[in-house]
Design goal:
- The complex is a heterodimer of chains A (about 450) and B (about 300).
- Chain A is built from twelve helices and 15 strands.
- Chain A has about 450 residues and is of the alpha+beta class.
- In chain A, the strands form five sheets. In chain A, strands 6, 7, 8, 9 and 12 form a five-stranded mixed β-sheet that branches. In chain A, strands 1-2-3 form a three-stranded antiparallel β-sheet, with helices on one face. Chain A has a three-stranded antiparallel β-sheet with strand order 13-14-15.
- In chain A, a hairpin with a 2-residue loop joins β6 and β7.
- With about 300 residues, chain B is α/β, with parallel strands linked by helices.
- Classes of the chains: A alpha+beta (about 450), B alpha/beta (about 300).
């Protein structure tokens, strides 16, 4: 064993969260093990216990500073489910506006700041340039469109959520503040420029995918199950039922979030603080599923908005359905950005978005259990709380987005590691000339 | 243009939100990023921990540390940042006061591990992971008790404007000038100095948008909280939960101050107040438990156990 070679990548960079990578190579050069070591957890499930239920949306958002809106909203939906209350329709529209705005800005930061440096400078560029600061330096026009999209999303959240990061306006029974008409008008005025930047993003994504088609179609292609929320088969990030697709592309489950324990299995690995969530009826590891953009685009029959649906069709022509191409996650991310942008426009044009009938005045706590589920940018996000009759939180179970992906990440890493260390497949890949040579 | 200033940005156990807030300076990135010589920033650049460890001591001008020391790895990163950086900034309320992750100190570590790994709705009989993951610290000790902190930049997260102000000053080597006012200073609601008859929970009724939330009975920590947020929540209908910590002096006890303010505003018999104010510790010390008087006693208990 002592002759095994261990490769450690510490930390894994350009991701949100804390992790390292451990690769074990045998004497014969074969890949023996790949571990994605998520190295921290903060125990939210424990310290939510004993808090008033209505405070959970303000505490749980702190799980993630990139996706606090999905946590804020999954949490408030959980409390409302436990207490048996339904917020006014206008409040739901404001919440959807918030989560679509988050989808837009999060996908923009991921595509441009986290992923793009690999494609712009090439995967073998020096670490000192393989980052967003260098994108800004060498491709200022691209950086400006990225910043403007991020700004649109984040500032729109601030308008309705009080804060762009860790918003505070969702409360059991509705929303604490309406969208003022003058703010609505201001945001509607900014929509055309935002859509123009979306079109530019789609063009850039298509160029990148076509330039790197050899990488997209050959590297880290890993068949798994997929999980994602749809509303009657249409991709949705705020409400609906949860679909599971098997590796062959069959929809094998379509269930209400409250029934999740029949479908979700949680495996505790010995090498990661992030647990591995999988499709329980099949077991672990056979039932390992993936979540996030590509998973949602796999499980959905179609997109909710016309331009996004056209983009999805175009993507499917290239990578099929289901697509097991890990690199196609970037493409799917851009397809979803289009949907978020179109949703934002539709919501802002809806007269009800400025309604002041946004909060119930007679909310009463009651003993009960609730499940709240939304799609965070990085995947299906589920909160489950038990309330006592005074409205205090007794028990919490949180299945956060990325945990649905950790086992799948390891699976695709294993494929990639074998390609690189055993087959040297990376040497024969057709790579384009970098957009920027450094 | 002046020479870029060297900077390292580290993340302990945290949510990334402070760095998202830095990114949210938007078009100002076009001037700020070129002025930085980034030596380490795991969420944006590809430098590894070994790169950071390899820099000479005190060779990096500015260090920003987000998050708490929940694990040995966090602790190591914090100490390494202190060694390598001339000015170490506690970046955000977790780094300044323990923040929300400090609430874990309400419990023993074993109780936390039970819920996360051993027994919950979807887990049965799991074991705490030990391979290639850093051990947990038994309790969250505030960063300023582990290393010397030069600058506190609180907020959950610090606003993008505040970050821009701070970074601009740091790049010029100037003092960061910040107003000492509490949140109330920035709140547009009217105060009539009337006592509270009944404490309300935030979902109850419909609040008057023009009157002080505390005077309406909704507990609001604005008067005990540093107003670097410029009142963003209270001006959008939400009560303050104290996420920027106390106004200067920075380590005064925010929770004690908030309780004292409530005592003045709510002349109710203690039993009634106790019944009506749910979860006082998780409310008044939500972001500052680890650095509060009570929280310090909790940490001492852990130290006593060790002995």
């Amino acid at each position: 064993m002592s002759e095994d070679k261990i490769i450690r990548i510490d930390p894994v960079t350009r991701l949100e969260g804390h992790g390292s990578l451990t690769l074990k190579l045998g004497k014969d050069g074969k890949v023996k093990d790949v571990q994605f070591n998520v190295s921290s957890t903060r125990f939210f499930e424990k310290f939510l216990e004993g808090r008033p239920m209505e405070e959970a949306p303000r505490i749980a958002s702190r799980i993630c500073g990139i996706c606090p809106i999905p946590h804020h909203l999954a949490s408030v939906k959980t409390v409302e489910a436990a207490w048996g209350i339904t917020p006014p329709p206008a409040a739901v529209k404001i919440r959807r506006l918030m989560i679509e705005a988050k989808q837009l800005s999060s996908h923009a930061i991921h595509f441009y700041a986290l992923a793009a440096p690999d494609f712009v400078f090439g995967p073998f560029a020096d670490p000192s340039v393989r980052n967003v600061a260098a994108v800004l330096k060498h491709l200022p026009d691209v950086a400006v469109q990225a910043i403007k999209l991020m700004e649109f999303g984040q500032e729109l959240i601030k308008t309705v959520g009080a804060k762009a990061i860790h918003p505070t306006t969702a409360i059991p029974g509705g929303q604490l503040t309406p969208l003022k008409e003058e703010d609505r008008d201001l945001w509607l005025g900014r929509v055309p420029e935002m859509l123009e930047n979306i079109h530019k993003t789609v063009d850039l994504a298509k160029k990148v995918v076509n330039d790197y088609i050899d990488v997209v179609t050959k590297v880290a292609v890993a068949p798994t199950y997929y999980i994602g929320l749809t509303n009657k088969g249409v991709l949705d990030i705020y409400e609906g039922t949860v679909r599971v697709m098997d590796p062959e592309g069959n929809i094998v489950a379509d269930f209400e979030p409250k029934d999740y324990t029949q479908y979700y299995g949680e495996h505790i690995p010995d090498h990661s603080y992030a647990t591995h969530i999988y499709y329980k009826p099949v077991g672990y590891p056979e039932g390992i599923w993936r979540t996030n953009t590509l998973a949602r685009c796999n499980v959905a029959d179609k997109m909710a908005t016309p331009l996004a649906d056209a983009a999805l069709k175009e993507m499917r022509e290239l990578v099929g359905r289901p697509s097991h191409h890990t690199f196609a996650y970037h493409y799917a991310r851009v397809v979803e950005m289009v949907q978020a942008a179109e949703w934002i426009k539709t919501l802002l044009e809806d007269p009800e978005i400025v309604s002041t009938d946004i909060k119930l005045s007679d909310v009463e706590p009651r003993a009960g259990e609730g499940v709240g589920l939304v799609e965070a940018p990085r995947g299906t996000l589920l909160h489950n709380y038990e309330s006592d009759d005074k409205g205090m939180l007794v028990k919490a179970n949180l299945i956060v987005a990325t945990n649905n992906n950790i086992a799948g990440i390891e699976k695709s890493l294993m494929v990639a590691a074998k390609q690189i260390f055993e087959d040297k497949a990376h040497e024969s890949l057709k790579l384009p000339e970098p957009m920027v040579k450094t | 243009m002046a020479e870029p200033v060297s900077i390292a940005m580290g993340q302990g156990s945290s949510c990334w939100g402070c760095f998202q807030s830095l990114i949210d300076i938007h078009m100002n990135l076009a001037t700020v990023l070129p002025a930085l010589d980034i030596k380490y920033w795991q969420c944006v650049t590809d430098y590894k921990l070994s790169d950071l460890e390899g820099y000479p001591d005190k060779s990096i001008v500015v260090g920003l540390y987000e998050g708490v020391a929940r694990t040995e790895e966090d602790l190591h990163l914090l100490k390494t940042m202190r060694e390598k950086c001339q000015i170490l900034v506690a970046f955000g309320s977790c780094s300044c006061f323990g923040g929300i992750p400090g609430l874990a100190n309400f419990y023993d570590l074993e109780e936390c591990l039970d819920v996360k790994f051993r027994e919950n709705k979807t887990v049965s009989g799991g074991k705490v992971p030990t391979e290639n993951v850093p051990p947990f610290e038994p309790v969250i000790v505030p960063n300023n008790q582990i290393v010397d902190i030069d600058i506190y930049l609180p907020g959950c997260p610090p606003t993008s404007d505040l970050i821009l102000t701070a970074i601009t000053a740091l790049l010029k080597g100037e003092e960061i000038k910040l107003d000492p006012h509490t949140v109330c200073h920035y709140c547009s609601r009217e105060k009539k100095d009337t006592p509270i008859e009944k404490v309300l929970r935030p979902y109850e009724g419909i609040a008057d948008p023009d009157r002080c939330l505390l005077e309406q009975g909704y507990i609001c920590l604005g008067s005990a909280t540093w107003g670097l947020c410029e009142g963003q929540c209270v001006n959008k209908g939400a009560t303050c939960r104290g996420c920027f910590g106390p106004p200067p002096p920075i380590m005064q006890d925010q929770g004690a101050n908030a309780i004292s303010m409530l005592g003045t505003y709510a002349p109710l018999p203690p039993e009634e107040l106790k019944e009506q104010v749910k979860d006082p510790l998780g409310l008044f010390n939500r972001f500052t438990y680890a650095t509060s008087h009570l929280g310090s006693m909790r940490i001492k208990r852990e130290e006593a156990k060790k002995r």
